[in-house]
Write a structure and sequence with these properties.
three-stranded antiparallel sheet; 3 strands; about 20% strand
């Protein structure tokens, strides 16, 4: 398609050399990542909480047991 899908981060709407390198919506739908450095798409955002670790912003999937929640912190002013 010529128009970027919702939540696209890197999109080329023209034919030619290269390709679209990210499909965040598909990746989250297919793999349900437990942690991500990329914000989840709007369709999955309710399943994630914004946290920080060692100065990085991360998105952690709610209710995942393998995440060491005690090592993550809520960034100031939000979730």
């Amino acid at each position: 398609p010529a128009k970027a899908p919702p939540d696209a981060r890197c999109w080329r709407g023209f034919p030619g050399v290269g390709h679209n390198k990210e499909d965040v919506r598909w990746t989250f739908a297919a793999y349900h990542p437990e942690l991500s450095l990329v914000p989840p798409p709007s369709t999955d955002a309710a399943h994630y909480v914004t946290m920080s670790y060692d100065g990085l912003t991360v998105w952690a999937r709610r209710g995942v047991e393998r995440v060491l929640w005690t090592r993550l912190r809520h960034p100031r002013g939000g979730r």
